[in-house]
Amino acid sequence: MAILLLVFQHSATASVTVTKTNNSGATVNGSSTSQSVSFSALDFPGLGTTITNVAVAVTFSKLLPLGIVLTPGFREVGFTLTGAGMTEELIDGLGGSRSFSEGGVGASFNGTVTFDQNAVSMVNANPNQIMAGTFRPSDGNLNNFIGADAIGNWTLGISDSRALASSGLTVSSWSVSITSVPEPTSIGLWGIAAALGAIIVFHRPRREDLTFAS
Predict the structure, then answer these.
(1) Most buried by CB count within 10 Å: which residue of 10, 120, 122, 187?
(2) Residue 9, Cβ neighbours under 10 Å: how many?
(3) Is the pTM of this model over 0.90?
(4) What are phi and psi for residue 115, nearest 5 degrees?
């Protein structure tokens, strides 16, 4: 009698994206702060927590008070993302070569910027004006999070590098979207062929069972 071991390999390829949002809001002017969201295994039920993509959306404003005709100080805006033991810079807010310029006189920004490494353009492709849309970070690389574990706190660092009475940085909300792919699973099934209908039984007649005609 032969017993068969049947092994079925199931690989799920559909990716799953989980988004966590922080609506606390914050305003900084010549200072910095940070806010966090947290991911747990319960956010990925029955799925793997290995990261395949990270995107960050930040809704913020950099405005001049009415009647003030100055530059908005876009170069002061700085954002970082920290998670999985790493920190990646989204916008360099220290006035470096990869930050924005001061911006045009009377310019302002009020909208949502999404940071995604798969975007076509860098966030400061136009260094004189912050634009709403989806962009690559100015300095960091979000692909560095790929392969890490999503579980834990993810923190947005918010900074405005110069204190001016005319122009602060206000963040109204932000979110982190983490994409993962379910891990392949293997299911091993042991069975006796009679129970499974897949048994190979070899029966050789015994000598005493044979009948010979005389």
Answers:
(1) 122
(2) 9
(3) no
(4) -100, 120
